[in-house]
Amino acid sequence: xxxxxxxxxGTFPALRVLLLLLTLLLPCLRQATAGRHNYxxxxxxxxxxxxGQRSGKLPPDQRVRWRRDSALHDGSSAGVDLTGGxxxxxxxxxxxxxxxxxxxxxSWSVIDFGRKMGPELRxxxxxxxxxxxxxxxxxxxxxVVYVQVGDPYSDHNCWERPEDMDTLRTVYRIDxxxxxxxVAGETAAALAAASIVFRSxxxxxxxxxxxxxxSVFEFADRYRGAYSSSLRRAACPFYCDVNGYQDELLWGAAxxxxxxxxxxxxxxxxxxxxSLHAGDTINEFGWDNKHAGINVLISKEVLxxxxxxxxSFKNNADAFICSVLPGISRTQVQYSPxxxxxxxxxxxxxxxxxLSFLLLAYxxxxxxxxxxxxxxxxxxxxALLRHLAKRQVDYIxxxxxxxxSYMVGYGARYPLRIHHRASSLPSVHAHxxxxxxxAGSKYFLSPNPNPNLLVGAVVGGPxxxxxxxxxxxFFQESEPTTYINAPLIGLLGYFSAQA
Length: 499
Fold this sequence. Notes:
Residues 1-34 form the signal peptide. Keywords: Carbohydrate metabolism, Cellulose degradation, Glycosidase, Hydrolase, Polysaccharide degradation, Signal. The structure is a single chain. Strand 4 and strand 5 (341-342) form a beta hairpin. With 499 residues, this protein is mainly α. The protein is built from 20 helices and seven strands. Helix 3 (39-52) packs antiparallel against helix 20 (482-498), helix 8 (203-222) runs antiparallel to helix 11 (246-260) and helix 11 runs antiparallel to helix 12. It has helices at residues 13-25, 29-32, 39-52, 96-113, 121-138, 152-156, 181-197, 203-222, 227-230, 232-235, 246-260, 263-272, 291-303, 311-324, 349-369, 382-397, 421-424, 441-445, 475-478, 482-498, and strands at residues 94-95, 145-149, 171-174, 334-335, 341-342, 373-375, 378-380. The protein has one domain (29-498): Glycosyltransferase, CATH 1.50.10.10.
């Protein structure tokens, strides 16, 4: 018998993983040993960020005081009330697809980690409700979902405060003749997930959310199609769904099954698992691709011994873990020299927070079931997955080669020139007179720090070499989004309780 040569990749795979994990940590050991992070403070600030993103009539308890009421006539051109909700990022458009995903992840954060949030749980629930109140308005007409308010080209041609908006507030909708199973499926998921959040807090509201989720999902499934095709000019290239709508149908069904426990959704998932490509792109999770999230969410049922018929989803979830674990041959996720998860495309932190959330959620499910994930010769324990998730959170908060926190207002050094209209322009209090569409350009191009601190905003983050230009024009690195922060709420809630 031939003797196999000894190698780290063959005989000692576990050692190889350990060495590579240490390699990822080495660039940041100096920052990491400087002091422990205040995860509760970061949690407080990351929730506060959502108040800075509010659209509509602000409530009396609004804490981000430099913001004022805005977009008070949204929906009027279509004869409906579409005030409220969130601006998704640094612009003034309300995009329904990322807003719904944000709502789903905020809800999942509260469902899994709310008990660890302490007094901040109340504010996290408020953040969910600000979104669901809007989504209920957007789905109030049966067979119609209003999916966007604001012409994106008009908006992106200006740099102005939301309080000053004079750009087109065009209303976009999907219906039977113009389907959008992707955005409708995600909206159904958001409403169903939120119904769990409010089940004991406000039973009547919870029932309304669940019934609306059922109705919206039926519409999404019956009239199939991509909203990018129906509303191409409005959706693309801003939130153009390049991944297809099939994953959102499974995602919506998974959340409806979790929220209602109805057999019809279990049967829907089993019946459509193959046709809706449940095993595709197992390491992708975000507003456009739900595959990894579907597999982790459904796997909890398998791990708890309640749904052996979903075992293929558990296999996919295990494969997801192996695909992101650094140091093994099958890894499909890149890491920067400083140890940050990196995927090609803009706003990389959305991948960091979403994938880290799944790592943490799955580690908890595995821990309760006393299970591990086998990746060839490497065993991924729940503790290892928590460590990997925590490493990403710590990088965001400042344990990185630049020693910079990528959360505005947290730590001694953080981004000062974020790509965000309201933050970069003088507030209405400081500058009561109107600032027109092009008059804001001088503030956009200014080298000065933003006058209004958008506390808690996590920006798109550094590039693959850990370099970061703190500059508004570099929007892929300097723009915050709600869907970066939403999964971070759960992560920070968990780690604040462990500190």
